[in-house]
Specification:
It contains five helices and seven strands. It is an alpha+beta fold. The protein has one domain. It has a five-stranded antiparallel sheet with strand order 6-5-4-3-7, with helices on both faces. It has a two-stranded parallel sheet with strand order 1-2. β3 and β4 form a beta hairpin. The radius of gyration is 17 Å and the shape is globular.
């Protein structure tokens, strides 16, 4: 009897957490690509869109996204990709040349590391505005951009502050991480 009550309580907690994540995701919208003012970020966005499109057009890998995608990766064959760190690797590899050409910098970012809500993406920024070590300082978060296609499978861009807001409850602070680019579209 106790075990059944505990399971029910866990189910209730998971339901509430899922609803909170869904509601948060509904309020924080990505930056519309057509509204991007900086020419460097527009070029990065173009490479980013092309990278996501090429991933889906791949003939040797199946790309998926979101929570359903996570289940597909975990329960299907080895040619299915779509965990957030898969997307981080392919996005990084796909935009690195453009980022370098326009004079911006990039790195990986993770939030809630080593928890069940761990999430990875790519962070791009103009080094003329601040130094790498100043990221992710709250005062500068609106000046850095996160490339994160995981939730929808689309080339979504957020300011860092909005991306962190979308992450919901943050139990482990964001951390900048190196990216190993062993995946190609």
């Amino acid at each position: 009897m106790t075990r059944q009550i505990k399971r029910h309580s866990t189910l209730q907690c998971l339901t509430v957490a899922a609803m909170a994540m869904i509601l948060t995701a509904c309020v924080v919208k990505p930056i519309p690509h057509q509204s991007i003012q900086q020419s460097a970020l527009r070029e990065i966005a173009q490479s980013y869109r092309m990278t996501v499109r090429q991933a889906y057009e791949s003939t040797n890998k199946t790309w998926v996204s979101g929570w359903a995608g996570n289940m597909a990766v975990n329960f299907q064959d080895n040619n299915t990709y779509g965990l957030c760190y898969h997307w981080k690797k392919i996005v990084y590899a796909g935009v690195v040349e453009t980022v370098e050409r326009v004079g911006w910098r990039m790195t990986g970012i993770t939030v809630n590391e080593a928890t069940t809500h761990e999430h990875h993406a790519v962070l791009v920024y103009d080094p003329a505005l601040f130094r790498h070590k100043d990221l992710p300082s709250p005062a500068k978060q609106h000046l850095a951009y996160v490339l994160d296609p995981w939730r929808t499978g689309k080339a979504e861009i957020y300011t860092l502050d909005k991306w962190l807001e979308r992450a919901g409850q943050i139990t482990v602070e964001p951390r900048l991480v190196a990216v190993v680019t062993d995946l190609q579209p």
